[in-house]
């Protein structure tokens, strides 16, 4: 197949747009969407962006494009933060990849571990807490640590590598669980003190295109996957959305488009209140104790 823009060999048939694209025009298309997303976040002079870099394909591509986008913006600082959850045989390889990439891209890199910050690794938590999805623990603790470290670094934005598939899965998962309030919080309507606003530069790029971009740019991406399975529901939704996208190209984009329209009304119904500070760790939270402190309490109780 030939590229619809220049006639060279195509590397991608973008079913949702009906376009065949060569390597050059595919990368241009992806970078245009990423720049548009970054522009929408109204980044100004003197900002410091902390990137959550796991070492996987999404955040590695995010590191690469952010570095390129901000190359000419002299006043923007970029730092990568990698969280070591303590998952033997998996995270070590990812961390090596993250180190390699940040060195290659000349991005400052900070690594923080669950063990140093919470006294437990995910492997230890998995041994203690066999009855609960380990990913919920991992996600809550990681988000807290990322926010705290980004704040400590003086970051004004926290960038993550979430792609279009991740976003569409989360929206659909909240709808299917009937959790409308959480859905309303998915795009925060105001900046909360202590909570670093998010930037998701890849949120309009489908997962298969992120993989293609990473391969074309020969980014060092490990192929190991985490030994703890993802939540069963997300896995099911992922399969369902991929099936729908295959049969009805553009489904994921339409779902997100509908969500952004509905979100305007959701924000009016579920007005975002002021957050408190966790009375134990000081992180922003609803109520007196943050989710992480509550989960760590559970772990301690179960262990004793
Ligand atoms: S798959 Fe689950 S346990 Fe593994 S890194 Fe992701 S959230 Fe953590
Ligand atoms: Zn082309
Ligand atoms: Zn807390």
Automatic annotation (TrEMBL):
It comes from the Archaea. Zn(2+) 1 binds at residues 3, 6, 22, 25. One of its GO terms (molecular function) is ATP binding. The keyword Repeat does not apply. CDD domains: CTU1-like. Zn(2+) 2 binds at residues 278, 281, 290, 293. GO terms for cellular component: cytosolic tRNA wobble base thiouridylase complex. Pfam families: ATP_bind_3, TtuA_LIM_N. Residues 2-26 form the 2-thiouridine synthetase TtuA-like N-terminal LIM domain. Keywords: 4Fe-4S, ATP-binding, Iron, Iron-sulfur, Magnesium, Metal-binding, Nucleotide-binding, Transferase, Zinc. SUPFAM superfamilies: Adenine nucleotide alpha hydrolases-like (SSF52402). One of its GO terms (biological process) is tRNA wobble position uridine thiolation. Residues 48-221 form the tRNA(Ile)-lysidine/2-thiocytidine synthase N-terminal domain. Its cofactor is [4Fe-4S] cluster; Mg(2+). The keyword Transport does not apply. ATP binds at residues 52-54, 58, 83, 161, 166. PANTHER family: ATPASES OF THE PP SUPERFAMILY-RELATED (PTHR11807), CYTOPLASMIC TRNA 2-THIOLATION PROTEIN 1 (PTHR11807:SF12). This is TIGR00269 family protein. It comes from Candidatus Methanolliviera hydrocarbonicum. The lineage of its organism: Archaea, Methanobacteriati, Methanobacteriota, Candidatus Methanoliparia, Candidatus Methanoliparales.
């Amino acid at each position: 197949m030939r590229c619809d823009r220049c006639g060279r060999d195509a590397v991608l048939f973008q079913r949702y747009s009906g376009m065949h694209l060569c390597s050059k025009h595919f990368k241009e298309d992806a970078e245009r969407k990423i720049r548009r997303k970054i522009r929408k976040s109204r980044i100004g002079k003197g900002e410091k962006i902390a990137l959550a870099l796991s070492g996987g394909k999404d955040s590695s591509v995010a590191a690469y494009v952010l570095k390129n986008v901000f190359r000419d913006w002299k006043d923007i600082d970029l730092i990568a933060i990698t969280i070591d959850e303590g998952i033997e045989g998996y995270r070590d390889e990812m961390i090596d990849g993250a180190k390699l990439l940040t060195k290659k891209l000349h991005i400052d890199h900070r690594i923080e571990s669950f063990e140093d910050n919470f006294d437990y690794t995910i492997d230890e938590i998995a041994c203690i807490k066999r009855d609960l999805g380990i990913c919920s623990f991992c996600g809550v603790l990681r988000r807290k640590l990322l926010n705290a470290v980004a704040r400590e670094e003086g970051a004004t934005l926290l960038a993550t590598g979430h792609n279009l598939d991740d976003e569409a899965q989360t929206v659909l998962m909240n709808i299917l669980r009937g959790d409308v309030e959480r859905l309303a919080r998915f795009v925060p309507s105001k900046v909360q003190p202590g909570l670093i606003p998010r930037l998701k530069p890849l949120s309009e790029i489908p997962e298969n295109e992120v993989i293609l971009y990473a391969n074309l740019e020969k980014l060092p991406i490990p192929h190991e996957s985490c030994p703890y399975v993802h939540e069963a529901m997300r896995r099911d939704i992922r399969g369902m959305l991929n099936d729908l996208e295959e049969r009805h190209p553009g489904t994921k984009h339409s779902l997100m488009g509908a969500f952004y329209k509905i979100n305007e009304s959701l924000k009016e119904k579920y007005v975002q209140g002021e957050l408190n500070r966790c009375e134990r760790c000081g992180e922003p939270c609803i109520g007196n104790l943050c989710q992480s402190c509550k989960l760590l309490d559970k772990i301690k109780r179960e262990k004793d």
